[in-house]
């Protein structure tokens, strides 16, 4: 894999699913990814076009704020992260 492709793939940390998202029937053309906080919609759109040659219909982003977790007298925090919903035009078998 070339350096450029590795850099493009590094925008997407991992494919993310939730129970609510997977049971929804209207989300057939939608993929959900976990991305770094600094990534913008333009970066995501450009990356999808370069890697997969697919034009996304819609891109929605959502920032999940850090959460406090308390265990005994110790307090820990989960990091903030960004969730991205990418909608495509037609239902196809996408290899992502």
Automatic annotation (TrEMBL):
Molecular function via GO: structural constituent of ribosome
One annotated Gene Ontology cellular component of this protein: ribosome
SUPFAM superfamilies attached to this UniProt entry: Ribosomal proteins S24e, L23 and L15e (SSF54189)
GO BP, one annotated term: translation
Keywords: Ribonucleoprotein, Ribosomal protein
Domain of life where this protein originates: Bacteria
Family matches, as Pfam families: Ribosomal_L23 (PF00276)
Family of this protein: Belongs to the universal ribosomal protein uL23 family.
UniProt protein name: 50S ribosomal protein L23
């Amino acid at each position: 894999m070339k350096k450029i492709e590795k850099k493009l793939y590094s925008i997407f940390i991992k494919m993310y699913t939730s129970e609510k998202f997977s049971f929804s029937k209207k989300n057939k053309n939608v993929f959900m990814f976990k991305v770094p906080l600094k990534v913008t919609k333009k970066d995501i759109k450009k990356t999808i076009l370069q890697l997969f040659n697919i034009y996304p219909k819609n891109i929605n982003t959502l920032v999940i704020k850090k959460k406090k977790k308390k265990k005994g007298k110790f307090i820990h925090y989960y990091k903030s992260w960004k969730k991205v919903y990418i909608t495509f035009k037609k239902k196809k078998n996408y290899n992502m």
